[in-house]
Amino acid sequence: MKLEMRSDIVTGAVFPDYELSDHTGKRRKLSEFQQQDPMIVVLSRGAYCPKDRRQHEGLVELHRELEVGYCRLVTISTGNLIETNEFRTGVGAHWPFLSDPKRIVQQDLDITEYTDPHHNPMIPHTIVLEPGLVIHKIYMGYWFFGRPTTEELRQDLRTVTKKCRSDWDITTEEMRVAWQQGQKKLFYPYGKTLAEIIAHQS
Asked: Looking at residue 200, what is its pLDDT?
């Protein structure tokens, strides 16, 4: 049984910047959601799958941590707009859900779940991205326990945040001197534009 994504979707590669309709019907790119933050992308079967619902119920609590940790979360499923909204509302989610009924992502990544021709879903994956849509880790969740736990995602995001936040450790003398010298672009949120800050809060 082939379950791998296409061969170039690996750690260190840039994940495709898919543009799809969000749960409000607006076309959005993944990079628009990510800005300069770490991001988790969940490729989901959809609301009909109890494993996907349970995974997303767990992500609801983690999302509260992602918000205060300046990280992003996006779900993509093959459901239409109505199904996508029902999925999002049903699990109590407050992050963007993207609708891909044309199976653009499924076909582009070569992750058709051929064992379910009735629903024709994607093989579920969870992808942790560094800024710039750079792939940090990929989890394949055809079986439920192939999906990351919230603690595994916390550890992934700790590693990514350490890598991408220059002010991760402000106790160092170098960072103290940088602050005193007015190099505020090295510190969050001073290195972000006002538009990026507002986008994160919305």
From this structure: 55
